[in-house]
Fold these 2 entries.
Entry 1:
Amino acid sequence: MDSEDEVISVASSEEMMEDQDSDLSMGGDYSDVDLDVDDPDVGFETQDKDIKPKRRPYEVEFNIYGPADIQSHQDQQIDEVSAILGQPPEATAILLRHTRWNKERLIEIYMDKQDTLLEEAGLGKSLAKLPELKKVKGFVCEICCEDGPDLKTFSMKCGHRFCLDCYRQYLAQKIQEEGEAARIKCPGDGCNKIVDSKSLDLLVTEDLKDRYQVLLTRTYVDDKENLKWCPAPNCEYAVDCRVKQRDLNKTVPTVHCTCGHHFCFGCTLNDHQPAPCSLVKKWLKKCEDDSETANWISANTKECPKCHSTIEKNGGCNHMTCRKCKHEFCWMCMGVWSEHGTSWYNCNRFEEKSGSEARDAQAKSRQSLERYLHYYNRYANHEQSAKLDKDIYLKTEKKMTQLQSSSGMSWIEVQFLDAASQALQQCRQTLKWTYAFAYYLARNNLTEIFEDNQKDLELAVENLSEMFEKPTDQLSGLKVEMMDKTAYCTRRRIILLSDTAENLKNGGAHSLRLRPGSFD
Amino acid sequence: MALPKRIVKETERLMAEPVPGISAVPHEDNLRYFDVTVEGPSQSPYEGGIFKLELFLPDDYPMTPPKIRFLTKIYHPNIDKLGRICLDVLKSNWSPALQIRTILLSIQALLGAPNPDDPLANDVAQHWKENQNAAIQTAREWTQQYAKPQ
């Protein structure tokens, strides 16, 4: 087994070199092939600029944007549309949000029926006049009932005038407590005018302005179909990906955020390649809800043939008398007891029709439970192992330092451990989902190829994992082998994902098929 | 905490010029808590009934709406068993320019025009849609039984 492995691993690293011939120019020797194949051009940008790294079938195109990028995208679009429509930027922003940043549609509707649009968006005609604070004689604020000649007041175009304090409090309540920004209306009863950013600037304090901007950016990303926030805690990046919702059955758009988090753009769950989102959702639901309790019941109990009460036999003979309906039947064949004649306590009527149907149903549900458990156990196992590997990863750093001091290796020379640990994590994640995916696959030749790929990857991963756990003093001797195995694992993963992705994309009769009803 | 001018003014006005068919009296020990009664509107199944409600003005009133709840049992698709009310102006459409007076009027109007398409009490709403006459009859009976003036 070992020797065979090595043959393959050598072959694979050669393949890899061919694949990444752009890297050849770097003149690295074979053992220094960039192990993190997923990210082949780290540090080589300058040389590789003209050679675009080829995308693998399972990879999707995406961009990562920070808060500043998102802000400038908004501003850019606002400026552009503002110039076309001849509306001030703050009003244009409201209009754009109203049409969920669909520029073409906005311009079209604006040209078509300007007044209706302005009304619906909560703007009203012409916002040309700058918002200002005023003192009005004889004014009584409708909200706080204060009056006096020195009271500063504010109103938007709609003419609903309130005192500055109330307006401020109102906006603070909306922004801070209710997290509202894009659609804050005039405080007047039933008034639909939207508070624009210029009025807001005049009214609120600096910290609220910041919060307001953050909230606006949030609605921008939420509004745009091709943008999504990275779901990692405290991550403030958004991902731009053009994969359409309707294509999610055919592709699994895994994206890699700058913060290091890998997630699926379709459902924002953790990377679940190669299984498509809808299957993942179904699988997770299946795993957590109690449909499996029902499965257990059907596998371990029988129903009274007459009243269908569920019965678990916990001892005694085969002559059953249903406690509920007093029906007497045989536990073995499920047939009526009276037909048994004198052959009591020894059912030999296995081929009798009265019992065979009941037994068929029983067998089927038992089988489906076993099938589920087969996949679930493997899925859960990889999940568990990934967790353990993660613990090991945390210890890797320590191991690397130990190795440096014991073997005299330099920091750069012990990086192979880090690479191995990352490859392990990634492969386990993939393996885990291959089992969920396989549960929903119908049997055909491609399923077999899929399973072969799965088997290869699993074997490679287990080999590497085992090696990883060896004591530190042995590790330096294993360096080359470990690097080979790491590369091999990564390679197997790429093959599995590429094959599956291509098969999913192609659809058609000669591809991976799901069991009937899997995409419901 | 001193009572804001707004609440003082509103209370004064509620006492000085009460709305016909509606009364709201603040508790002596808590001026933010009101005992409310609303007469069932004429030509509705609630006609002749007097419904008790409680109303509380939270600290950030009028930036947030008053909390209000029926104390008298009532058969209505937008009012649930606990007396909670499904009414837009008490939630998303609240505006600080609204007042206790306007809110109570809205509630009275809700009694006159139940809306089973936006239900809070699902069973009542379903009854209302399937057999409006029978539902109205039940509402009448409940009014007779629970909302009779003493």
Entry 2:
Amino acid sequence: MSVATSSAGNAKAFTTATVTTGAGNFPVSLYIATVVVAFFLIAAIAPKLLQTHDPLELDLMSSLKGPSLTHWLGTDQSGRDLYSRIVAGTGQSLSIGLGATALSLAIALMLGVTAALSSGWIDNVLSRFFDALLALPTLFLALLFVSLLGTSVSTLIVAVGLGTSPGYARMVRVQVLRVKATGYVEAAKALGHSPRGILFKHVLPNAISPLATMFTLGVGQAIIWASGLSFLGLGVAPPSSEWGALLNAGRNYVIYAWWLEVMPGIAIAAFALSVTVIGEYVQQRFEGRIELP
Amino acid sequence: MSKPAAVRSGFLTKTLNRRLKSHAAIIAVAMSGFSIVDAAQAEDASAGKPLSGGIIRYGHFQEPPCLYGGWVQQWYLQRQFSDNLVARAEDGRILPWLATAWTISDDRKTYTFQIKPGVKFTDGTPLDAQAVVDNINGWLSDNPELENPTAGPYLRGVFESAAATNPLTLNLTLKTAFEPLLNVFAQSSQGILSPTALKRGKAVNCESPVGSGPFIVEKWNRGKNVIFRRNPNYNSAPATAKHQGPAYVEGIEWRFLADPTIRYGSLLTGESDVVYHIPAANWHDANSRFKIVRHLTGGTPLRLALFSERPPFDDVRVRQAFAYASDRRSAVQAAFLGSLPYEGNFALSQSSPEYIGELSKSYSYDVEKANKLLDEAGWRERDANGTRSKNGNALIIRITYTNAFSPPDGDQVLQIIQQQAKAAGFDVRLQPTNQADFWAGKNLGPNDYEALPLYWVAPGAEIYRISYKPDLNGVRNPFNPSRYQDLPLWDIIQKAEQAADKTQRIALYQQAERRIVENAPSLSYTVLDVTLALADNVKDIWLDSGSVGEPVFSDAYFTDKK
């Protein structure tokens, strides 16, 4: 094993994990995170490959059984296999995470770029609008949308996407303003490039690239927000095994059948943590604080 | 009723002192190694009465939108601050309460009540015959400020007039005999409220209703608790009470702890003295640790009302098939872990006097029978998922539910029904609806659901008038969510209500009961219960089992004076 070094020569700059493997000098945490994310991606795309039981199959004689060789993560109140239900719920949970983050970033791009490029009163109005929305907790905004639109996967995507967009919009605005002030944009103006050309060739590519990092970080967060809504009973209708819905279903059994809360909680935490590790790595790559081996 | 700040302050100070003393007592006991004070020591040696004092911290489940009204959660609250005309004992006998005596005319249409003298509402208004008349007329009026959603559907069709013939004599005249009248008067929703206070309007009364009961509503902190203070002048306890006179405890802190785990946990940690509705997962633990008092409520069981006004449930064979398609007995066992009994009698809960036990065995799980009935009903086509269809319409059953009527553990029963009914070709879709949306009518329109879990509690079969009265003369019965229109059934129900002879009345109600089960306009699985778990140092909290099990705190006392 060796210690990763950043381009600036500061080994502590990469804080996610400094322990690396010999093969390729990638941090161990990155390998683990990749394996975890890969597992959940397979679960989302082809859940039947990983399921050990039909996630909806009832076995009332096996109600609330603890983890065992037959049921790796135990069973729920109706005797359904919890591991298979977590696998089955991955698709919905990831759809919500990816969909909500994509929606959030799309809104952020549209409004953030508009604000940064327009300056003047439009920028002022949009900036105050972002500030006003940021003053409201994300969960409150999401609850508002769920109340208006009802509960479903698409509603959760919209609710979480809209709820988290103000923060991203402000970041996009700042990024665009930063790039606008750089020398190469000034040079392009001096060379007589058209405003449209400057925008698409210089400003947007440079302002948007950090968003890739934000996207990976946002997916994990969006899943947590959606799980929170489901936990409050405002998520997907039963018998969906979306992770937050699993948490909600198990909350009355937290002492009697701990696995109903702990196992979906671990799935949420593992996925969110893993995409965060990957996101941080990507971020540091973009910022040049770490070099590829 | 709003109290002066000084009074509130005094009440809160006492609460705090009580808690400090309680903690001090626990520490003292722990240090000395002595056992907790024995219940017998709490008896006042000189008077032989339980000691007074202390505030009961009660953890409840649901918080209603108003402190009185038609929902049973409101009855529980109303039982604390109002008195009824009569009381009903668990064995069905009608006993005096505000009415000390009464006579019934030979034609069973005129009731004459003698009202107890010297009773006052807690705002000082005399509780006399005119006050009762004002209440009854308000209940049955069309005035939304005064109408009573329980008394209204029971009595509107039979009530003629009420009059105070002298300050303490009330005459009530009916259009036709109605034998359940006194049962209706004994339910807490028919508690008598101060006519003076009622003039303040519903919004004010919802917050601070005024009755003559053992406790006074001091403050409702929405989302948190209702503070009840003892009525020091209480002199109108029912004959079913364990003692007459003011309550022993100084008050009740009625907390709304919606999460069952938190609620039960508050009893475990000593933060509550009494809690309502033990979560299924904690049922056995609670029975081993605490005294449990419970009442399985009469009236209709917890049931799925099947919308019978349009396909697919307009066909009795489809309703029956749906009943056969799920193993509701096992579902109840799995979901409630023994904390609630199975109820397969679709018409009536097992604590009702007219209950026929054998009907609970109807419609045992039998997918073959379900399939046969659906084939006969013409639902023969099946898609790739096995869902049946007829004339191009899939056999979809949407169940709208809310925890206002379906207890938290009950969601699991619905999921089991959903999964099991697949085998017979039903595509069951669950529509969880939060309570606020539910009360606003979301997912409850005539085209929004095929099944709806609910209960309507009552002492017994008199509930049929509310739940199964058909639409008559163009007037829709809004309390018949299955929209089941059965005129012969209505005829039997009316005959039962008019039968003076108890044996004949029960026989007629049972005839109706069999007809309801046979035609399956609803599909039951368990009953509503009222279950309290009590800390060791609290005694004599009881449930008004003659009514619908409202918790009664006016006889309660602490064995270690707090």
